[in-house]
């Protein structure tokens, strides 16, 4: 049996899949510690893991990031995405590494298994010379030359003009991320590490093993990866299984199609997606289930139409088998959960990884990309009509669902990690 350190950024979207991974390691008999923020300490303790809380690293409230990271105040779109990556994920890396190294000195682990945005895991792995496994809870965004750079949601180019566009975008991305590279170099220096020759594009990815949530059918085709990648399907249970049914659950009609609209759990302004969806579908022959993404804020600040049912969170495992379509901000966990049930998607991907997810869903044929995080009601209505009228969207979603259901993501992370350790031990005996 192995000693596992699991490093998890304290965001709801990161916690659910990594809690499932923690449980899978424990079920297999391994010792598990989890390094995460105070907001989710009890969640991981409930799995049976020992929790190591952020100490030197600045713990934060995911619903009020500017309170801890003032540079994020007033930003949206691309500026928000870059600032989030720099201040939340990169500039906390040295302090995360300090916390993890202290935990290693207290009791050594065999391997550190970290969510794909936990850069402190790389620093801790270098300090402790222990192997590191990345668990990517969002679509992989490792650039490769034959594809457009990640983040734009662009499909592969097929003509010379498209390839020229991609070269320009790669150059622009390198220019636009110079500040992130400087921040990473500064964090390495603060951690007492020498400058790295590793390309910045892969610093978040383990050179030992990357377990990627999802399936190849939801990724752009490419010849190879610069690091070892294994797809493991969906990681989390299909959403909020410990959530009590809302009061209206028994009243949800059985004789009308149900459309779910979810605002996600990070940027949760209901004006962005819930309001236009209610305006679009309020007079249509459907029931609308709207989730605000906040268990402590289950209502809306504006009137809802009579055919709408509103909650903070719902149990996806109970709801998804009943719905006909899902309007989503593009959170990867929710997208995989919906597709696992063969549900076609309408994706409003506004920022961070969401445009990339929206582009992949559209490319896969399982849904419509609205190309904005703040769509107009008319655009939502037109997309819903397309998805409802064309059976190919559901057929494609069902095909992807069959591929996803062939995986057991958490157990596959465990088996891949154990295989890595076995290989390392065998190499050490030679």
Automatic annotation (TrEMBL):
Source organism superkingdom: Bacteria
CDD domains in UniProt: GT1_Gtf-like
Pfam families recorded: EryCIII-like_C (PF06722)
SUPFAM superfamilies: UDP-Glycosyltransferase/glycogen phosphorylase (SSF53756)
InterPro entries for the chain: EryCIII-like_C, Glycosyltransferase_28, UDP_glucos_trans
Residue ranges annotated for the Erythromycin biosynthesis protein CIII-like C-terminal domain, each copy included: 278-420
PANTHER family: STEROL 3-BETA-GLUCOSYLTRANSFERASE, STEROL 3-BETA-GLUCOSYLTRANSFERASE UGT80A2
Protein name: Glycosyltransferase
Organism in which the protein naturally occurs: Agromyces aurantiacus
